[in-house]
Amino acid sequence: MIEALPDIPPERQEMVSCALGAALAYDVPANILLAVADKEAGKPGQWVRNANGSYDVGTLQFNTSYLGDLSRYGISAADVAAPGCYPFLLAAWRIRGHLRNDTGDVWTRAANYHSRTPRYNAVYRSDLMRRASRWTTWLDDHFPTHDAVVDTHPYGTR
Q1: What DSSP line would sit under 93-124, residue for residue?
Q2: pTM higher than 0.90 for the full model?
Q3: Domain-located, residue 148
Q4: For the chain, what is the domain count?
Q5: Residue 126 maps to which CATH number?
Q6: What pLDDT is recorded for position 157?
Q7: Dihedral angle over CA of 74, 78, 80, 84, nearest 10
Q8: Quick check: 96 and 86 in contact, CB under 8 A?
Q9: How far, CA to CA in Å, does 125 sit from each of 13, 18, 84, 104, 117?
Q10: Pick from 118, 117, 119, 100: which is nearest to 32 by CA?
Q11: Looking at the domain assignment, is residue 147 inside a domain?
Q12: Domain that holds residue 68
């Protein structure tokens, strides 16, 4: 877990820490996973019934329609509803699948986490882009990266 995030409220620090770890584990852009977690804003143990009879479960509001595929690995709704980082790993796995396998631009594919129905996807996509932009700024402020130049001269620096 990341030690201290003074500009993130204590109740959201687990979200940030878990999302960053899951993004790294599944090679998903951290700003996208943070934006999804921010947008979904579920709670451990939360179940929200959808019009189609499925449920959105837990912190990442993971849809139960995906549990059929996951049950063969022993993953259940209780796992998705649990507190901690496991739900973030499941969401990152699912987002990675959308990013790799779906069609459309990266934002449409990421918004497929919510819905593939074009009108619902478009609304989610727009909000996801806005949230991801804010998270990109936060990440850049807290985790700056630098280009490293490798000296290939056989005797070191000239």
Answers
A1: HHHHHHHHHS-S-HHHHHHTTT-SSHHHHHHH
A2: no
A3: no
A4: 1
A5: 1.10.530
A6: 53
A7: -110
A8: no
A9: 24, 22, 26, 11, 11
A10: 100
A11: no
A12: 10-141
Is residue 118 included in any domain, yes or no? Answer: yes
Structure tokens at 108: 């449409």
Residue 157 falls inside a structural domain:
no
C-alpha gyration radius of the chain: 18
Q: Which long-range contacts (CB under 8 A, 24 or more apart) does 129-132 make?
A: 129/35, 131/34, 131/35, 131/38, 131/39, 132/29, 132/31, 132/32, 132/34, 132/35
What are the pLDDT tens digits along the chain (158 aa)?
A: 444 556 777 778 889 999 999 999 999 999 999 999 999 999 999 999 999 999 999 999 999 988 888 889 999 999 999 999 999 999 999 999 999 999 999 999 999 999 999 999 999 999 999 999 999 999 988 887 766 666 565 555 54
How many whole angstroms separate alpha carbon 2 and alpha carbon 59?
A: 19
